[in-house]
Model the fold of this input.
Amino acid sequence: VANPGPRPGEQRKDDALAILGTRHADVWVATASPDGEPYLVPLSLGWIDERIVLVTDPATATVRNLEARPRARVAAGGPPDVVLIDARLEAVTRLEAAAPDLLEAYAAQADWDPRVSGGDLVVLVFAPRRIQVWRESDELAGRTVMRDGRWLV
Amino acid sequence: VANPGPRPGEQRKDDALAILGTRHADVWVATASPDGEPYLVPLSLGWIDERIVLVTDPATATVRNLEARPRARVAAGGPPDVVLIDARLEAVTRLEAAAPDLLEAYAAQADWDPRVSGGDLVVLVFAPRRIQVWRESDELAGRTVMRDGRWLV
Done:
């Protein structure tokens, strides 16, 4: 298929929102320890009210890293259709204390329902600060569609 | 398709090597800045003589992070078929100074040939230290197939 050329920003935003709204999708979540050790795991994605919502075990390196520094870089989609999000952790809530509506929305999108899986879990809510969207190298220019938490398109 | 149950370690190693040998595959490469800012980008994979080989622009955050701390966590494959590698940077070489055999092998596997793409590029060679391989949650036990640079299976 011939490359149709770079997408305009508005289309990249729409395409990114479609990827973030995909059901049963995992994202790659990168965090770092206080001394700069990179960590990376796949987690089931919730995208709810323009927030990234993840649910995981509080004993994981991801949660430990976020407690020390509330920053993650999250990759959705997959090469060559890439959505990369620099995100700030807004809240960590024990599953039992999380808002029922949030858990309902998460379970509807993710490929599992943490309310029935049992075990010790926390809900992580992240605000996107920067979002970059590109496919081929001709889309590297103009790849930033959100900066400082505001859509540019 | 019914889950056939967890794969034995030897099969996980074979499956991981098949994923790492895939042509035209990208990997997700997580690094961290010295003050603990996570970074994550997709790069074209070379898997040559049990080393991860990547080629990128020396002005990127990935290279800057690696110069400060020679550690990356690299994800190959995609959920639910995951290969996660904690890797140590062994060498950074300017493209012009890299071994011709290495560049030939890289170009044969990756989806581009850095020798013809032009621009300022460096070749990054990483030794895997730990490799984890799993699909479903029933494979989380036994997911480590390499530790301290040695295959366990």
